[in-house]
């Protein structure tokens, strides 16, 4: 009898514990869960302002920061080209990306087909980039050696080459009209001398850094939230509910 009572008491006790836990779990804001950082398999964890199609809700990021997973890599589309995101530096609002053609290892001569431009994108260049200019199907080489002769894309009558400063060509009175076309591709400088020791494939593979403008996300994350954007308005999804900027509404003093 006494034992029986003890047992039912235990059961009730366990039931109470469980309902508390269940309640706790149920009260987690689904937006907070939906906007957890996720990745494509390879590459960095993706979170606001980026969001991954099919893995995140669109409100987990900003509309024009959509990322798709392609072969396990996170990819952003900029104009007509796909770029693989290699790293995201959330601390200084920037990311390292490289034209996805350099990931196609069967393509031994990855020459970009389109000019690169940030026009109409939400991104800005970082201070540490230079443009590499590709000239294709030219009738002659410039007088001085170009930075890279693109032997793979050249024959006796149609020559291709790449240079870092196309002003040099003007200086040499080289007429780019002798070329069928040219395109630019940004690459990260780092140490320019190092860059010059590389072939153009490796130079392109280094990628380049773009930045986006700062908002409240770092404060939101510091307070334990996941950032999002509802109706173009910054939102901080916290485990209990959504806040406008931070989970503690800025009450905790900044470190
Ligand atoms: C992604 O986040 C998880 C969980 O926080 C962490 O264990 C992992 O190292 C992160 N991956 C990368 C590439 O940063
Ligand atoms: C942000 O920090 C990373 C790592 O320190 C650095 O490589 C990158 O160039 C920085 N971004 C900008 C825009 O300076
Ligand atoms: C070079 O010319 C050939 C035909 O002459 C053409 O197929 C090719 O697309 C051209 N390449 C570039 C980059 O313009
Ligand atoms: C050189 O390459 C172009 C395409 O880039 C091609 O149209 C042309 O026939 C080639 N010329 C020779 C001599 O192989
Ligand atoms: C380019 O042309 C200008 C004017 O015709 C001439 O003064 C200059 O020496 C030329 N430069 C080279 C490198 O040939
Ligand atoms: C790239 O831009 C330059 C200058 O605007 C232009 O002359 C060139 O034709 C463009 N290249 C291509 C492939 O569209
Ligand atoms: C560029 O250099 C790397 C080694 O650093 C080599 O594996 C690759 O084949 C080279 N690519 C070209 C197009 O020469
Ligand atoms: C710019 C250039 O010289 N293009 C040449 C590429 O090769 C074809 C065929 O040999 C020529 O017709 C083009 O003039």
TrEMBL record:
Q: Return the protein name.
A: non-specific serine/threonine protein kinase
The cross-references to PANTHER family, in alphabetical order and at most eight, read: OS01G0690200 PROTEIN, WALL-ASSOCIATED RECEPTOR KINASE GALACTURONAN-BINDING DOMAIN-CONTAINING PROTEIN
Keyword Transmembrane helix included in the entry's annotation: no
- List localization entries: Membrane
**Enzyme category, top tier:** transferase
Question: Where is each Wall-associated receptor kinase C-terminal domain found?
Answer: 158-240
Signal peptide positions are 1-27
* Assigned GO CC terms: membrane
Tell me the superkingdom of the source: Eukaryota
What EC number(s) has UniProt assigned to this enzyme?
2.7.11.1
Q: Which reaction does it catalyse?
A: L-seryl-[protein] + ATP = O-phospho-L-seryl-[protein] + ADP + H(+); L-threonyl-[protein] + ATP = O-phospho-L-threonyl-[protein] + ADP + H(+)
Keywords noted in UniProt: Glycoprotein, Signal
> How does it sit in the bilayer?
Single-pass membrane protein
Matches recorded under InterPro entries: WAK_assoc_C, WAK_GUB
Q: Which residues cross the membrane?
A: none
Location of the Wall-associated receptor kinase galacturonan-binding domain: 35-98
One MF term in the entry's GO annotations:
polysaccharide binding
Q: Which organism is it from?
A: Camellia sinensis (Tea plant)
